[in-house]
Structures are given as structure tokens and as C-alpha cells.
Design brief:
CATH superfamily: Hemerythrin-like
Helix content: over 70%
Strand content: under 5%
CATH architecture: Up-down Bundle
Radius of gyration: 15 Å
Bound molecules: fe (ii) ion
CATH class: Mainly Alpha
Distance between the termini: 40 Å
CATH topology: Four Helix Bundle (Hemerythrin (Met), subunit A)
Number of domains: 1
């Protein structure tokens, strides 16, 4: 099932929100590629982009946390590192086994749901901190 972007996912920090939208869209593209039986090459391409973009986004977000003096930076960075590993493992599994209903379920749970929850729980805190600080 595709994820729908909504106001509830907006942190209010323009750069973060733009990247989050791109991430959600890429997860949707991956789900689409897997559930519509696109070729393995296409799936690998989308998954590769997702991994690469995730690394870039996390690095940008971490830089922002550091430059603003965000107090929970180390914990947030740890969460990012763990997720990156999980996503890499899933990419390897997907490449090995190919698309299936089970894999689509895993993409939903491990990548999509995680991303939505992370945005709503953790990333909102960063944006709020930066906003408060600039008042
Ligand atoms: Fe984050």
C-alpha cells in the first residue's frame, strides 16, 4: 500500500520536508516496482537510489543537528545508523530472493512504517528545537 504525504508529516523545516517527501516517494516507487512485477534490474535501481538517498538525507539531518546544538544528536545518529544497516540487509535479501508478497510486506513494515514513525516521533523534535531556538 502506498504512503500518502500529509500535513501531519511536515516538520516545518523546508529542507528536511523536501527530502522526506522524496524518501516517501521512493519507498512508494519500490513498493510499486515489487508489487507490479517489474524486473529485478528496475527494483535494484530503485532500492539503490533509496539507500543512497537515505545516507545523504541522514548526513544532512545530522549536520543540521550538530550545527544547531541539538541535545539528542548522538541518540538520533545511532537510530539512523541502525536503520541504514536494516535497509542494507533488506536490499540484500531483496536482491537474493526477488520480489514477493512477503518482501512487499517487509518493505512496508521495515522501511515505510519506520520512516513515517521516525519523522513523526524523532524528526519533529529536531525541527521544533530549531524553531524554538530561533525565536
Ligand atoms: Fe532522523
Amino acid at each position: 500500500m502506498a504512503y500518502v504525504w500529509s500535513k501531519a508529516l511536515e516538520t516545518g523545516h523546508a529542507a528536511i520536508d523536501t527530502q522526506h517527501k522524496q524518501l516517501v516517494e521512493t519507498v512508494n516507487n519500490l513498493l510499486d516496482a515489487c508489487s507490479k512485477g517489474k524486473g529485478r534490474d528496475e527494483i535494484k535501481k530503485v532500492m539503490g537510489f533509496l539507500l543512497q538517498y537515505t545516507v545523504k538525507h541522514f548526513a544532512d539531518e545530522e549536520r543540521l543537528q550538530q550545527s544547531s546544538g541539538y541535545p539528542d544528536y548522538l541518540n538520533h545518529k545511532k537510530i539512523h545508523t541502525e536503520f541504514t544497516q536494516t535497509a542494507k540487509n533488506l536490499a540484500a535479501e531483496l536482491e537474493e530472493k526477488g520480489p514477493s508478497i512477503v518482501m512487499v510486506g517487509k518493505i512496508n513494515k521495515v522501511l515505510g512504517d519506520w520512516l513515517i514513525q521516525h519523522i513523526q516521533k524523532e524528526d519533529m523534535k529536531i525541527a521544533k528545537y530549531i524553531q524554538e531556538k530561533s525565536k
